[in-house]
């Protein structure tokens, strides 16, 4: 695909992906920055470099997400390591971080349930070092990734391996947030695009898409003070159902917030007094 002797400046014309993906993979394979692609435009690729870049491009052409190929993804202005053990952090989830920060009292305790790469917990802890942030996940492999991300971003986060509330039954928090598995079993999106490569257990509850949300809504009041907030990300068509779950659970101020595309993406409420 790319032959030895090609120059860095010629890569955009030689590679078959869109310009942004071409640049990301070229920078990764050649260990140079975007500026380096300009300043080193006359640099000639070695045979090893050409082979490495061709292999990365082939992986992308087979559908593997860019984030997994390069092992990184930016989220909330921070750099996160990602691999196939965790979901790829997405810009829409930054809404959940913003909402959490707006509702987190000074020196408060926050719980992130199903943390995955640690994106939400690390972003909050990095922004609010006064907060005591705990993050849990059932996956030991995901927690390894999350711990590394907290360390790399100098964020103080306590990590717990737990199947939802099981390992923290005696603990209380001022705010609980979660981006749980919410895609229904058999949904066509699970076999399309990047989702084909992401951990299925972090995407779907293997049921109707609401079972994890029901568990969180039912269990959260035991861990929240009166008027403490519960905030949850959910699917594009689930806002009304999640509001109903919260209303049935006697939460107050139940509402949904829209993501960058105008879709109701996060729903929350406050524990009844």
Automatic annotation (TrEMBL):
Residues 95-187 form the Methyltransferase small domain. Belongs to the protein N5-glutamine methyltransferase family. PrmC subfamily. Pfam families: MTS, PrmC_N. S-adenosyl-L-methionine binds at residues 114-118, 137, 164, 179. Residues 16-71 form the Release factor glutamine methyltransferase N-terminal domain. Methylates the class 1 translation termination release factors RF1/PrfA and RF2/PrfB on the glutamine residue of the universally conserved GGQ motif. Its EC number is 2.1.1.297. Keywords: Methyltransferase, S-adenosyl-L-methionine, Transferase. PANTHER family: HEMK METHYLTRANSFERASE (PTHR18895), MTRF1L RELEASE FACTOR GLUTAMINE METHYLTRANSFERASE (PTHR18895:SF74). The keyword Nucleotide-binding does not apply. Substrate binds at residues 179-182. This is Release factor glutamine methyltransferase. It comes from the Bacteria. The keyword S-adenosyl-L-methionine applies. InterPro entries: DNA_methylase_N6_adenine_CS, HemK-like, N5-glutamine_MTase, PrmC_N, RF_methyltr_PrmC, SAM-dependent_MTases_sf, Small_mtfrase_dom. GO terms for molecular function: nucleic acid binding; peptide chain release factor N(5)-glutamine methyltransferase activity. GO terms for biological process: methylation. It catalyses: L-glutaminyl-[peptide chain release factor] + S-adenosyl-L-methionine = N(5)-methyl-L-glutaminyl-[peptide chain release factor] + S-adenosyl-L-homocysteine + H(+). It is an enzyme of class 2 (transferase).
């Amino acid at each position: 695909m790319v032959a030895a002797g090609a120059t860095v400046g010629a890569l955009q014309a030689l590679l078959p992906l869109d310009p942004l993906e071409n640049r990301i993979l070229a920078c990764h394979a050649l260990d140079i920055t975007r500026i380096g692609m300009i300043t080193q435009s006359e640099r000639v690729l070695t045979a090893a470099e050409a082979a490495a870049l061709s292999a990365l491009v082939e992986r992308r052409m087979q559908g593997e997400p860019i984030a997994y190929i390069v092992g990184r993804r930016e989220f909330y202005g921070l750099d996160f390591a990602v691999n196939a053990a965790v979901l790829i952090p997405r810009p829409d989830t930054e809404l959940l971080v913003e909402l959490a920060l707006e509702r987190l009292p000074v020196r408060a305790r926050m719980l992130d349930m199903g943390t995955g790469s640690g994106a939400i917990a690390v972003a909050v802890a990095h922004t609010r070092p006064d907060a005591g942030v705990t993050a849990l996940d059932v996956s030991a492999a995901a927690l390894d990734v999350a711990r590394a991300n907290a360390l790399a971003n100098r964020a103080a986060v306590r990590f717990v391996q737990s199947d939802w509330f099981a390992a923290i039954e005696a603990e209380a928090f001022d705010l609980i947030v979660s981006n749980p598995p919410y895609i229904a079993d058999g949904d066509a999106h699970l076999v399309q695009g990047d989702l084909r490569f992401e951990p299925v257990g972090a995407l779907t509850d293997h049921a109707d898409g609401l079972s994890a949300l029901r568990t969180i809504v039912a269990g959260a009041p035991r861990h929240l003070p009166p008027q403490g907030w519960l905030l949850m990300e959910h699917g594009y068509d689930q806002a009304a159902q999640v509001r109903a779950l919260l209303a049935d659970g006697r939460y107050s101020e139940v509402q949904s917030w829209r993501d960058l595309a105008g879709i109701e993406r996060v729903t929350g409420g406050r524990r009844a007094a």
